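Workshop exercise sheet. Pairs work together: one partner reads the sequence aloud, the other fills in the structure field after running the prediction. Swap roles for the next sheet.
Pair: D.N. / O.F.
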Amino acid sequence: MEKIAVLMGGTSSEREVSLVSGRNVSEALASLGKYEVVPVDLKSDSLDGLPEGISRAYIALHGGWGENGGVQAALDAKGIPYTGPGAMSSKIAMDKIKTKMVLEMKGVPTAAWSLASPGTEASPLPLPVVVKPPCDGSSVGISKVSTAGEWTPALAAALAAQGGAGEVLVEEFIPGREMTVGVIDGEALPVLEIVAKNGWYGYDEKYKSDETRYPFYGEEGSAVIPGCPPEKLQQVALEAYNAIGCRGVTRVDFRVSPLGRCYVLELNTSPGFTSHSLVPKAGMKTGLSFAGVCDKILGCARFG
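Structure field:
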């Protein structure tokens, strides 16, 4: 049988989430009975733990070297096809500042933004804003700032998530609703709404809470906003996907205003496959099993 490596773990702050995703993907692919699946827990920013004879790699790494183009470039050098976008697109998408620049250049709608560094005493944008590290995922270090007194701890949390130095992204908070669209091989999946307690989708709401709901947009619990049908969000998701040069699987996250204007927040080129993850949920809505979603993603594996 074809020997498939499922790469997981890694050295980023998202290591534990990645291990869960990787185990789920490994079990799902193995259940199909047509692959020899080798789970590979990477504990350094290298492919030293990769066994011989691997024909394709499924990237279940989140954040850091696993999502910023590092592992993609290393797999390119070995000539091993892998899931998700290539090295350059991954590098752009992992950096929220670069992503913003490309989206604006390509005419894809995104929220207004600015930058802050250590010592910035107040938000450079009118409140409310969202403060986030530009190169972390899983909502690590992200805060909503509604009052002046919340600025300093929010800036500190974002800086701490990236080692205390550098610049962080300050983004206009778009009132309204949060949506997400998965894309696999250029095909937009059904739109999901994220309904979090108190309207904030942070780390705990994403991975720990059983109160966060994920209805499909336009179905029970998620009324369609006038002027913003699901097809509109899917089209903008594809525009963002193509603007960054993605291939394979990517998840595009939005805020949608009460007037139906949609704003791309970010692209996740290695979306999670945990029990709370949204790409497998959307993929299964199309009639695939969980294993079928993983297999479809694996079928898009490329290198170079």
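Discussion prompt: The chain has three domains: 2-84, 93-109+175-299, 113-172. What would you look at next?
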